[in-house]
Write a structure and sequence with these properties.
CATH architecture of the largest domain: 2-Layer Sandwich
Radius of gyration: 17 Å
Largest sheet: 4 strands, mixed
Helix content: 10-25%
Structural class: alpha+beta
Number of domains: 2
Distance between the termini: 18 Å
Number of helices: 2
Length: 154
């Protein structure tokens, strides 16, 4: 048996922009189908929004995304995350974790994802990794980036 798990991100009208932003950080190919492509009248409000979006890179990075129908663009994505006294406090249901094989690779992704982001934990050496960091990007998605070691490789 072979199972692939892909994070599916839900947006409030900016899924296309998010996928393009993530493409700038991770490379890969973006595929997008709109509600209009799936039969909604092209002149209907929301017909240009993403019903199926995906970013997939050759090195295995993949996320999917769509625009929640009728969600107000100015609604706030769920949850907040912060660090206090060495503990992560959050009310978000999930984080997206990206594990790189080298610190240089993690830094490249971090530098791009951190544009316009709220830094929760700066990318730096930790007790378990030569590089660990956490941020919430401008689209409200919280990311954990770290570097694989023998202890945390899984």
């Amino acid at each position: 048996m072979n199972i692939t798990t892909t994070t599916h991100l839900n947006f409030r009208g900016d899924a296309r922009q998010a996928l393009e932003f993530y493409q700038s950080a991770f490379g890969g190919l973006v595929s997008i189908a709109t509600y209009g492509d799936f039969g909604m009248p092209k002149d209907a409000p929301g017909a240009d929004k993403v019903v199926f979006g995906q970013l997939e890179s050759e090195d295995g990075f993949r996320v999917m995304a769509y625009d929640i129908p009728g969600a107000p663009a100015d609604s706030i994505p769920g949850g907040t995350t912060r660090r206090e006294n060495g503990v992560t406090l959050t009310d978000q249901p999930f984080f997206v974790s990206v594990r790189s094989t080298t610190l240089e690779e993690a830094v490249q992704h971090w530098d791009k994802l951190s544009a316009g982001a709220s830094i929760i934990e700066p990318l730096a050496a930790s007790a378990w990794s030569p590089g660990f960091g956490m941020l919430t990007d401008g689209f409200g998605v919280t990311w954990i980036l770290d570097v694989a070691t023998e202890q945390n490789a899984g």
